[in-house]
Amino acid sequence: MKIKAEKSIFVQVDIQEKLFPHISDNEELEKNLQILIKGLILHEIPVIVNEQYKKGIGETIPSIHELTKDYPHFEKTTFSCCGNDDGLNAIKKSGRDTVILAGIETHVCVLQTALDLLEEGFKVVLVTDCVNSRKQKDKEIAIQRLIQAGVIPTTYESLLFELTINAKHPVFKEISRLVK
């Protein structure tokens, strides 16, 4: 299955201040997420931001918030983003059938969101270098499980160039600069 910009929506999961410092390789994850989000915005892909229990875990980290502040934000207490009716309805109302997923933690909120999205009939694309957990083993096992469940794994660079299609695309040069 080819991933197409006009059929895709991006769902960001719980990239929050009090949890983020405890995530493995968080500096690389932050850099990767910034590139991914900038590229998806260039492709005019809708963005939905989810935040787990903000009173306890805090706001989205500043560098990511700056990129996503103008997009819908949904607070949740369920681990799955689909447990929040408003968030799930926003995905459904987008008219897009492919959900690009990134965030933390891979083995909890990202995993449960992806499984629920599959049950809802969406195609789910997991950006594997834009997810992480506190422990690498948790991330690895979660990714294996998600692939077995039918999630499509990719990396931010592969995804951005797949969405761009060819070197004559209007955003090709900007995408190329982002991934360098």
Notable characteristics:
180 residues, alpha/beta, Rossmann fold, Isochorismatase_domain, hydrolase, Hydrolase
In words, what does this structure look like?
With 180 residues, this protein is of the alpha/beta class. It is built from eight helices and six strands, in the order E-H-E-H-H-E-H-E-H-E-H-E-H-H. The protein has one domain: 3-Layer(aba) Sandwich (Rossmann fold). 46% of the residues lie in helices and 20% in strands. Strand 4, helix 5 and strand 5 form a beta-alpha-beta unit. Helix 1 runs parallel beside helix 3, helix 5 packs parallel to helix 6 and helix 7 runs antiparallel to helix 8. It is globular and about 45 Å long.
Please give the count of helices.
8
CATH-derived architecture: 3-Layer(aba) Sandwich
Total tally of structural domains: 1
What is the arithmetic mean of pLDDT?
96
CA radius of gyration is 15 Å
Terminal CA distance: 26 Å
CATH topology: Rossmann fold
Order of helices and strands, N to C? Answer: EHEHHEHEHEHEHH
Largest sheet: 6 strands, parallel
Quick description:
With 180 residues, this protein is an alpha/beta fold. The protein has helices at residues 26-42, 54-57, 62-68, 85-93, 106-119, 136-149, 156-164, 172-179; strands spanning 8-13, 47-52, 73-76, 98-104, 123-132, 152-154.
Topology (SSEs and partners):
Layout (H helix, E strand, L loop, with lengths): L7 E6 L12 H17 L4 E6 L1 H4 L4 H7 L4 E4 L8 H9 L4 E7 L1 H14 L3 E10 L3 H14 L2 E3 L1 H9 L7 H8 L1
Parallel strand pairs: 1-2, 1-4, 2-3, 4-5, 5-6
Keywords: Hydrolase
GO molecular function: hydrolase activity
Pfam families: Isochorismatase
